[in-house]
Amino acid sequence: MSEIHTSVQEYYGKELEKSEDLKTNACCTLTAPPKHIMEALREVHDEVQAKYYGCGLTIPSKVEGLKILDLGSGSGRDCYIAAKLVGEHGEVVGVDMTDEQLAVANKHIEYHREQFGYATSNVRFLKGNIEALDELDLEPGSFDLIISNCVINLAENKEKVLRDAFALLKSGGEMYFSDVYADRRFPVELQKDPVLWGECISGALYWNDFLNIAKRVGFTDPRAVENKVITVENPELEEKLGDINCFSVTYRLFKIDGLESDCEDYGQAVKYKGTIAEEKASFDLDDHHNFPAGKVMPVCGNTYKMLHDTRFKEDFEFYGDWSTHYGIFEGCGGAMPFSVGGEDSAAASCC
Ligand SMILES: C[S@@+](CC[C@H](N)C(=O)[O-])C[C@H]1O[C@@H](n2cnc3c(N)ncnc32)[C@H](O)[C@@H]1O
Hints:
It contains twelve helices and 13 strands. By secondary structure, the chain is α/β, with parallel strands linked by helices. The strands form three sheets. Strands 1, 2, 3, 4, 5, 6, 7 and 8 form an eight-stranded mixed beta sheet that branches. A three-stranded antiparallel beta sheet has the order 12-9-13. The chain has a two-stranded antiparallel sheet with strand order 10-11. Keywords: Methyltransferase, S-adenosyl-L-methionine, Transferase.
């Protein structure tokens, strides 16, 4: 067990007892969840909710029947929401390394089984290190969806986490997760600060390092779903941070064969049928792809694949093929994908 792991276990197992004990707002969810998540959340046990330390929304639409893995599941809040949304025939596995967090998660398995009216529970928790997922009893290529909420920043070897996650996903599956990112690399002395690391700040990746790692392990075209500025709300820690800006960002990373490094134009288009229960009027693939029901929309080759080679296939009509290439798809940039004062990054109050 490394020094960082011991310090993180100490922080989440002993130092913090409930969400209000956090010293900054980094591990706080700054966005109100959509209605169907709120409804599921109301059924989650109070003790589980009290120990929630997530920073964003991690459950995408259309999860019924899916097999989901939650990395760093903590007291199990997102696992239990997912357990409700996947239904009795879906399955949820949570992995965490801190005994105290696992104890709370495990304590309420039966409560949620009864609450959801399932004959047998569809959720289980494993003790393990998310930097060694390949050593756990998990079948490669067996998960439809991998979620994680404010955890990967706490890992030392983030590339290993993403590489193992990629291996565990089915083809056409996705990793949909929320974490903290910075607008530059953290100086080593701040990375050694146990409170800044424990609060999910100084372990955060510089956003472009994250994108490069994700692409290197096989998630060729990472898509940001939403982002919020983290305002920290702690004068002493803010002073240590100086000009470094942090963001809570939800990304979706699809495991799809043949995605290209850039958005290429093959003259393709799609039409959303309005059939996804949670997003009938329009479907948001990411923060710059909104598909109103019934409207034919031109898409790049990668977006076409994200809709065609995944669980969303039956919800779209597809036009065109791959026979003619028209060059780069207009509007694909390489700039920082979120901004301190931008429309999408309004800071909000939390916990
Ligand atoms: C900020 S909390 C988030 C917990 C949970 N996702 C939530 O939203 O409440 C971070 C959690 O990740 C776990 N964790 C951190 N690093 C880990 C690692 N390398 N392997 C397994 N769990 C880890 C901690 O034990 C803690 O429960």
